[in-house]
Amino acid sequence: MSEPKHFTREYVREEVLPTAFCPGCYNGIVMNALALAFKELGITDLKNYVFVSGIGCSSWIPSPYIKADSVHTLHGRAVAVATGIKLARPDLNVIVIAGDGDLAAIGGNHLIHAARRNMDLLVIMVNNLVYGMTRGQQSPTTPYGKVTVTTPYGNFEMPFDIAGLLAHTNANYVARWCVSNFVQLKESIKEALTKYSRGFRFIEVWAPCVTYVVRYEGKTPGEKLKEMREVCVPMSKYEKLLDEQKVKHVAVGVFKKEDKPGFVELYKEYVARARGASRG
Amino acid sequence: MLLTGNEAVAEGALAAGCNFYAGYPITPSSEIMHYMARELPKRGGVFIQSEDELAAINMVVGAALAGAKAMTATSGPGFSLMQEGIGYAVMVEAPIVVVDVMRAGPSTGQATKPAQGDVMQARWGRHGDQYVVVLAPSDPQEAFDLTVKAFAIAEELRVPVIVLTDEFIGHGREVVEVPEKVEVPSRRTQAGPDEPPFYSSDPRKAPPLPPLGAGHYLLITGSTHNEWGYRDVHRFETHFKLVKRLKDKVWLNMDRIFMYEVVGDKDPEVLFVAYGSVARSAKAAVKELRGKGVKARLIRLKTLWPIDASLLRRLGGEPKAVIVPELNLGQLMYDVERAYSPLEVPVIHYGKVGGGIPIYPSELVSKALEVLRK
Questions:
Q1: Within a domain: A3
Q2: Which residue is closest to B53 within chain A, CA to CA?
Q3: Which residues in A lie closer than 8 A to residue B62 (C-beta atoms)?
Q4: ipTM score of complex
């Protein structure tokens, strides 16, 4: 008898394995969380799901690994392409997976406007804190003080708190988890696919690049995961920290949970109004 | 109907079955967007005003991949922003229509004034080897007709088609005959087991584009890919085969894509080659010259890319001079020079741009008489 397959393999294109990810890369944890979320929801075939990604390491999670329709776009344009797909085919579930450089820098405008429109998309931003694919340059989420190839004397710019930013928009669902919060991450994905299945849903996954962040810190991916268990704290705890401690911690949790009608439903109403008006 | 060129573009798109429009405001193309904003919701189509032109073009590509007949319209600066997205559409073979109502540039230039400065950009604005189709209507009627044609070519060849108009056409109002029904064939979606979405054994045909959500597990990427969409960013064979096919698909259909109109004498002393609004002045100039006893001819191009250079030469006879009037400092002129290079005929550019000043027929008549030393 053959060994039972790992649950993730049900959802990947086996012919393209092994993945191109670096040994220890946390993208594997994100893939597993996604696969387990689908499995626990009883979704065995992803044919009603379209994955859209940009350019970067995490954009390779759906293209080519996840066994579903996947559209691998230009750098920064995943949310715009996903918007076009969703509006042309509202019956499909559209999930964007891309990185912090793709979504928050070059594609930042699309991200905030999709949130403003409460566009019916689930966006998973794998935040590896740098541009991992192009050798670890500073990104908009690189922590203050971090040494990268483009901040060789330490990053003097302040990073974006993307989940915090989007929590202040019209988006329905905003959460942030570290890869060390595997169960919470998986539950968050499930929630964003079921109970909160409309409007703009955003999950940031804190997943430092093992090659250009973790290794530079002299740590193994395993050691860094253990460290994340200490530094990734719920918002209630984070808020009580002193400012100098805050920079060393990451606030995690679900920051916003609403179930307002998304763009698709509002557009349907708009169409009805337009048709009524045209009838006079 | 009494329509401006911009309205005629919108009517043409709707007649062709356009059901998705994304766009960003810009002069002098905005009326196309206004028209679609009013008409599409009533017809159950999708209209969205995007946050910028990068979003517009990428939404349009996404919608096209998802099965919609999708279009955007813009002008100079917006067209520049859309270039990367048009290149992406070439690579993933998304059937899209992009309208550029040309205004005087570069940069912000003269936003309300006509020009024909985007001819080369429409062809070559993207990086890498890529081939698109560029159509150039001359009046509101043709803005309607060629927008319909643009959708037909886009759907058939899975290629971006660019419609180049200019401010004169866009804001000029004329009677446009809108037919009851327009036939635009939709792309092939049904693929046999041996028909991959990114390869066709007949180089003149586009492969079928299966719908999303039908269990095909499509892999669509702007990276170099094989016939099933798997990324291959290393091998020569994969890349060369792909870009060659993307070129051939357009190039080998030249006989159907290259459209033109010819007026005047078969054995002209002076030949005009023109397109867009300027071609109307050239047509008037040909009439006037013939009235003066000068043999004159006009080749009016409806297709600006691809151009069949040898046909262009055969159409023109053996003139003593060729005049290429354009609202720019010389762009189509280079194609005409190339076409007529075997004949040692002088190819003269007559160009001006800015201030909303047209090229008048009288100027072209004077120029013709001058070069013919009459």
A1: no
A2: A80
A3: 52, 71, 80-85, 88
A4: 0.97
pTM, 2 dp: 0.97
B135 touching A, CB under 8 A? no
pLDDT tens digit sequence for A165-221: 999 999 999 999 999 999 999 999 999 999 999 999 999 999 999 999 999 999 999
Residues of chain B positioned with their CB less than 8 A from the CB of A47: 213-215, 217
Domain count within chain A = 1
Q: Do A83 and B64 touch (CB under 8 A)?
A: no
Kindly determine whether residue B63 and residue A271, on different chains, have CB atoms separated by under 8 Å.
no
Tens digit of each residue's pLDDT (9 = 90 or more) over B208-245: 999 999 999 999 999 999 999 999 999 999 999 999 99
Question: Is residue A4 included in any domain, yes or no?
Answer: no
Phi, psi of B270 (to 5 degrees): -125, 135
Nearest by CB to B61, from A72, A81, A271: name it: A81
At residue A131, does pLDDT exceed 60? yes
Query: In degrees rounded to 5, what are phi and psi of residue B188?
Result: -75, 130
* CA nearest to B163, candidates B195, B187, B140, B181: B140
Which token pair is B60?
Answer: 């349009």
Which amino acid is it at B62?
G
Q: Which residues of B touch A70 (CB under 8 A)?
A: 217-220
Q: Place A280 in a pLDDT band, splitting at 50, 70 and 90.
A: low
Chain A nearest C-alpha distance from B189 (Å)? 15
Determine the pLDDT at residue B195: 85
CATH class, range B2-175: alpha beta
- Whether A279 has a pLDDT exceeding 80, the answer reads no
Mutate to test the interface with A, among B36, B58, B84, B225 (most CBs of A within 10 A): B58
- Whichever domain contains A34, its CATH number is 3.40.50.970
Rounded distance between C-alpha atoms, residue A103 and residue A100, angstroms: 5
User: What would the CATH number be for the domain defined by B262-371?
Assistant: 3.40.50.920
B185 contact A CB<8A: no
pLDDT of residue B185: 87
- pLDDT of B301-341, one tens digit each? 999 999 999 999 999 999 999 999 999 999 999 999 999 99
Position B374 pLDDT exceeds 80:
no
Task: State pLDDT tens for residues A5-16.
Answer: 899 999 999 999
Q: Is B209 on the interface with A (CB under 8 A)?
A: no
Phi and psi of A58, rounded to 5°? -70, -20
**Where is B84: in which H helix or E strand?**
helix B76-92
Residue A5 lies in a domain: no
Cα separation, A148 vs A142, whole angstroms: 9
For A205, the domain range is 25-279
Q: How many Cα atoms are found within 13 Å in the side-chain-facing hemisphere of B16?
A: 30
Residues of A in contact with B219 (CB under 8 A): 63-64, 70, 72
For chain A, say whether B128 makes contact (Cβ under 8 Å): no
Rounded to 5 degrees, φ, ψ at A223 are: -65, -40
CB of B89 less than 8 A from some CB of A? no
Contact A70, B219 (CB under 8 A): yes
Nearest to A89 among B50, B212, B221 (CB): B212
At residue A1, the pLDDT reads 57
In a domain, A54, yes or no: yes
Q: Where are the domains of chain B?
A: 2-175, 262-371
Q: Give ∠ CA B356-B358-B360 in degrees, rounded to 5.
A: 155
In this prediction, residue B325 carries a pLDDT of 98
